[in-house]
Amino acid sequence: MSSPGYRPTPAAASQLNLRGAVDLSSLRRPAPSQARPASVEDGAPHGGDTGKAPLRVDATETNFQDLVQLSAQIPVLFLLWSRYAPESPAVLDAAQRVVESYAGRLVLAAADVDAFPQLAQAFQVDAVPTAVAVVKGQPVPLFQGPADDEQIRSLVEELLKVAAANGVTGSIGDPAQDEEAEAAPLPPLHQAALDAIEAGDYAGAATAYKQALLEQPADADAKAGLAQVELMARLDELSARAAEDLRELAAREPDNIEAQLGIADLDVSGGHIEDAFNRIITFIGRNFGPERETARVRLLELFEVVGTSDERVAKARHGLARVLF
107-112 and 76-81 as β-strands: parallel, antiparallel, unpaired? Predict the structure, then answer.
């Protein structure tokens, strides 16, 4: 991996998955407030009081989904690093100092991409060091390359504002939150869906969410969870080469619905939310009949994946209304 100069990147929300495509948030529990900070202790703590939940942990394949679950309570700053990138130690130290200065309002997850290359693949990272925060299961790119305390602190300040706007205002090790989490177990079908996701059984997870919706049609968590696992299943079938071929096909054939919807999936997974929405809306505006309806339904599903309260979803709804009416 190369190591570019400092480059802040615009905030972007997406879904990721260690299985080769995407979806972080689909690995969290459907009810975000039930994630437990203590679970991150599977990673090795660095510094601080070892009797408390650490503010820096080593991200691994094992504790990755726990860290994603934790992001429903506090932001998790993933710092992807490599011993072959000379800037990595200084950036890690700077990030740790900044995170610790916020006294538990966020946690640092140090991801060694040499030991766990799947983490780099999950975040679609091709250069280190790279910092990506996760809030409510959605990644927010921060920067690539070297960065000092002041630069990191400035980005963390903006990150905390984004987190607060999305209701993520907890503090790690907050006893009240821990008690609330323990007092609120998942509904059985949601737990079944989570277990299926962890086993890589997306079809089983979809079945559990569909049953939950049959029993409770207003179950917003089940509706969002179903959209997420269906996206995961579609992306799980795409290899990197197939994704490249799909992009070429979509460029050549703007009215090929499978290609356009496939690229929209990839764009959502990569954080290009508005591009994904605009692609489908443009397709809907040019086409009629069954394909138009198929595209409209897929767009609504992606709204659920991103989050119906997201401002980009609200904007896309207006765009959809314009082409439909």
Answer: parallel
Distance of CA 250 to the CA centre of its chain: 25
**Burial status of residue 22 (CB atoms within 10 A of its CB: 0-12, 13-18, 19 or more):** buried
Residue that is written with structure tokens 């429903």 in the block: 72
Q: Is the dihedral of CA 121, 125, 130, 136 positive or negative?
A: negative
Provide the token pair at 142: 């921060």
pLDDT at position 14: 33
**Looking up tokens 């991150």, which residue turns up?**
40
Return the structure tokens found at 244.
């490249």
Would you mind telling me the total number of residues written for the chain in this entry? 325
d(CA 74, CA 107): 7
Alpha-carbon distance 67 to 95, whole Å? Answer: 17
Supply the angle between the helices 149-165 and 88-101 in degrees, to the nearest 10.
Answer: 50
CATH code matching the domain that covers 188-324, chosen among 1.20.120, 1.25.40, 1.20.1740, 1.20.1260 = 1.25.40
Residue type, 120: A
CATH for the stretch 7-180:
3.40.30.10
Residue 124 to residue 60: CA distance in whole angstroms: 16
The beta strands (E) that lie in the chain are given as: 7-8, 56-58, 76-81, 107-112, 130-135, 138-144
pLDDT in tens, 249-300: 999 999 999 999 999 999 988 788 999 999 999 999 999 999 999 999 999 9
Q: Per-domain residue ranges for the chain?
A: 7-180, 188-324
